[in-house]
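Example (one chain per record):
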Amino acid sequence: MRPPLVLTVAGSDSGGGAGIQADLKTMLALGTHGMSVLTAVTAQNSLGVQGAWELPVDAVRAQYRSVVDDIGVQAVKTGMLASAELVETVAELLGGTDAPAVVDPVGVSKHGDALLAASALDSVRTKLLPVATVATPNLDEVAQLTGVRVESEGDLRRAAAALLEYGPRWALIKGGHLRGEAVDLLTDGSEEHWLRAPRLDNRHTHGTGCTLASAIACGLAKGRSVPDAVTGAKAYVTGAIGAGFALGDGIGPVDHGWALGRGTA
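Predicted structure:
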C-alpha cells in the first residue's frame, strides 16, 4: 500500500538538523512519503547560520507544480519563506491545493539568525495565515506577527486569539520558551487543547519547530483530526528532544529516529 503523501515547502539546513532535512526525516519516521519544494539554501551548522540564498520564485513554483500535479499530496507543511514574494507565491499555491496546510511561520533560527525579511511579515499575516489549517508559531514568532508578548502561560490564550484574527483555522502557540513544563495551546477560537510535557534537561533542541510542524502534517495526511494530529506530534517531538544529541561545538539536533528504536542518546 502507498504511504500517505506529505510535502514540505522550506529551506535547506546543511547541518541536517532543521529545515527540509528535518522534515523529510520526520516524515519517514512517521510512516509517510515525504516530498520537498526547496525555497532557500543555507550554510548552517550547530553554531548558527553563516549564509542564506533564496531560490527564484519560478523555481519554487515549478517544484510545487511538478510534485502536486503528478504525484498529489495529502498534507503540506511550510517552513522558511524568506521574502514577501516567496510568501505570496506559496500562499497562492496552497490556496489552490485541496489538502490541509501546516504553516510554521519561521522568523529566526534557533541561534537567533533572521530567516524572514521584515518586509515579508505583512504578507505572512494577510496571505499565508488565511490559507493555513494550523499555524504553529513560537513565542518570538507570534510576537512578531501579532505584537502580543507572552510572559506567562496565561498570555497564551491572548496570543492565540490575536493570531486567529488573521484567518488560520487553528492556532498552536508553542510555549516552549516559558519556564516550567513545556505547555502549548491549540485552539480554533471555540475549543481549547492544552498540551503539556515535562521540560527535558537537554540543550540539543535544534529543529524542534520544523519537526513538530512536519509531524502534524503527517497526522493530517493520515486523516486524523487537528487535535489528534497535534497531540501525536507533541509526543513525537518530546521523545526526539529527549534523544537529542551533541553535534559540532554548538546546539545539536533532536533525534528524528528515536521512534524507530535507533535512539542515539
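Caption: The CA atoms of residues 29 and 257 lie 6 Å apart.
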